[in-house]
Amino acid sequence: MKTVAYCFLALLIISGRVAYSQDALPDTIVFGCDSNFPPYEFFDKDGKPAGFHIDLIRAIAADMGLKVKIKLGDWPEIRNELEVKGTVQVSDMFYSKERDSVVDYAIPNEVTYDEIFIRKGQKGISAINDLSGKKVAVQTSSTLSEYLHHNYPEINFVLTANEPAALKLLSEGKCDAAIVSHVETVDIFEKLNIENLISIGHPLLPREYCFVVKEGNFALLKAINTGLIHLKDNQKFNELHEKWFAPKPEFQLSRYIVIPGLILVFIILIILLWNNTLRYAVKIKTKELEFTNSRLRLISTVKAARIDKLSTKDQTIEMIKQVKETFEVDACVVRVLLKDEMKLLGSIGVQPDTLTESIPARSVFTKEVLPTNKPKAHNDSDELITAEYLFENELANYNFRSFAGAQMLTEGRITGILCIYSEKEGREFTRTDLDHLQIVANQIGISIENNRLFEQNEKQKEILVKQIITNKKSKEEIQKLNEELEMKVKLRTSQLEASIKELETFTYSVSHDLKAPLRGIDGYSKLLLDLYKPGLNEEAQIFIETIRRSTLQMNQLINDLLDYSRLERSQLSTEHVKIKDLVKSVLSIYNADLEAGNFKINVNIPDIELITDSKGLTIALRNLVENAIKFTKGNIEPSIQIDVEENDLAWIISVNDNGIGFDMKYHQKIFEIFQRLQRIEEFPGTGIGLAMVSKAMQRMRGRAWAESTLGVGSSFYLEIPKKQ
After folding, report:
1. Collapsed DSSP state (helix, strand, coil) of residue 358
2. 102 is a domain residue
3. Domain count of the chain?
4. Phi, psi of 214 (to 5 degrees)
5. Does residue 255 form part of some domain?
6. Which of 152, 316, 550, 661 could be stapled to 708 by a disulfide with Cβ–Cβ 3.0 to 4.6 Å?
7. Could you tell me if 593 and 707 lie in one domain?
């Protein structure tokens, strides 16, 4: 993929087209979303769309010079219009791994979580584990319902069209609990006049809220990402966020005074006291929500950190500065695990010369943290002085009264530890603090690993270039170094998904940008022939025709490369496939060519079903049939035969022809990309078709091979394992 991307970049520079093109964008984009999810999206009192995401998508469209149409409705239908019908181009979703295979996510614009609500006075429910066997209302088709169904199947779910309906069912006593987004509840309580519900337990399922497009719509995705970045740079994003998420005005005494002057002084005093209590409670709750939102914004910021912006150490310092400010502590220390030692990577709030550069790992992880894989806090200064979390008492001279530490986990492997310290009297780290600290620690760990890998790759490149210039290494040595470098990169593939996805977006953009100059070359060449052919000599006309054939060949090569790229990144989905019907469907595509060439077709396939990837198998069969037609149609009596055989472990599909055949010493070469055995003037093609066959079979854990005799014909075989 890297080689292809570099080739595209070189061609793009030659063509002089380096600017981003929006040719693929529609004149008007349709933004569809939930009609009842304030403050993100809802109908206002005038029946018009309103909310944070409504304003945000309009601002992005205005910034990018696009028109946008807003469509609000029930969430399941809107989601179906985006993912299936295609009548909606943009929507908003919480991130989940399952949805990422269907849609492409823009950069996050918000991080939120859910809360459990019960009726006041209700007993026996204090956390999510208490909901086993209970009736719990949640919104249908939401990431929350998908998460709960997967992780807590013992709960009896009551699915509702939206979150207000879930809270209303709970208020009316028709279920035992409801789980909804925390940002929506205040508005719902006021609109539905609900006063008998309370929130319990810890925040659930912290997750990112993003705009999404149908998978593969990279032009629109890039436009949304660019618009978001512009809005954040010019502070417009912060203005919209403040508009919809600023704390609401405090509770007013006047709404509780129904008949002023008719209430006795004693009752008025009681009401005043009660009002002050409520004011205090509202302030405390508002502060808690602002505090939690600041933590979640920190998580989002750390996750979006670029790996090439700063060095690993400098980037770590930048991240822990944010941690220190957000958690309101006095010091923060990060150490990374290298073999059996903890190496100091960064610190803030303490003098660097007071910290040991390297300490034994056992001094940190041998107590509660390592066996339980959970964050740990010490809220007692006497206990803290003797705790091994102080790294062999290297911070004992500081007046720290409390401590919290979380291990950095990367793919389930401990890679380091993040520690925060406070000198404030009475500062205790809560369970919520530790949960947030663990999430931040994991993201910092991944960021550090990615940045270190990036630096290692850059150093490897520098070393490789110097070796080529100074020592003129042989081709075999260079290839070995490249393979070693690729092995290291593959070990971190899961941590570099964002970077790879950006590369894929770039590849698609380059491919689409290449088509425009090719169309121009072909079009102007045709105009030259149409308008000036009488004035051109025969040699000039031949030159122009050659140019047109070359542009057509280049366009076909780009299309084949895009198909090859899509095959590599598409989701593998196994299903029951009627192989006989699939073969008939493939042959029907080439009916015109088969009839024109007077082909004899013999299909010997029983009525069986295979469990395999239908899309990948279709691609393989289409390329084999197309290959057979191309190399056989010159025969007097061309024929194609398709058979299916079975052995103990697999089904074997064969496509046989009586074409020109090939020398078997080139057997492996024909399945490699861009490899051809015949001149393109004799048999047109790009050399990618059989490579796609091989790639499709590898993805299905099968294989492809061929047998042939020059001048007699060829047989191509597809082996599909019975157990996928």
Report:
1. strand
2. no
3. 4
4. -60, 140
5. no
6. 661
7. yes
pTM: 0.34
Confidence class for position 506, pLDDT limits 50, 70, 90: low
Spatial separation of the C-alpha atoms in residues 386 and 672, rounded to whole Å: 64
* Helix extents (H) in 570-649: 579-589, 591-596, 614-632
Q: Residue length, the chain? A: 724
Long-range contacts at 101-105 (CB < 8 A, ≥ 24 apart): 101/215, 101/571, 102/214, 102/215, 103/212, 103/213, 103/214, 103/215, 104/212, 104/213, 104/214, 104/215, 104/216, 104/217, 104/218, 104/221, 105/208, 105/210, 105/211, 105/212
What is the C-alpha separation between 224 and 31, in angstroms, rounded?
A: 12
Sequence-distant (≥ 6) Cβ neighbours of residue 475 within 8 angstroms? none
Residues 597 and 706 in one domain: yes
- Model pLDDT for residues 301-357, shown as the tens digit of each residue: 554 444 555 677 888 888 888 888 888 899 998 888 887 788 888 888 888 777 878
Task: Check pLDDT > 70 for residue 263.
Answer: no
> Mean pLDDT across the stretch 9-22?
36
Quick one: pLDDT at residue 336? 87
Here the tokens at position 652 are 């074997």
| Residue 490, both tokens | 């593959």
Q: How far from the centroid of its chain's Cα atoms is residue 304's Cα? A: 12
Q: Is the dihedral angle over the CA atoms 626, 628, 630, 635 positive or is it negative?
A: negative
The whole domain housing 513 covers 497-569
Q: Which residue has the higher pLDDT, 438 or 500?
A: 438
Name the residue with tokens 């040991």.
Answer: 356
The alpha carbon of residue 326 and the mean position of all alpha carbons in its chain are separated, in whole angstroms, by 26
Q: Which two tokens stand for residue 530?
A: 């149409």
Model confidence band, residue 258 (pLDDT cutoffs 50, 70, 90): very low
Q: State how far the Cα of 504 lies from the Cα of 488, in Å rounded to an integer.
A: 20
Provide Rg for the chain, Cα atoms.
Answer: 32
Q: Classify residue 355: in a domain, yes or no.
A: yes
β-bridge pairing 41-43 and 110-119: unpaired
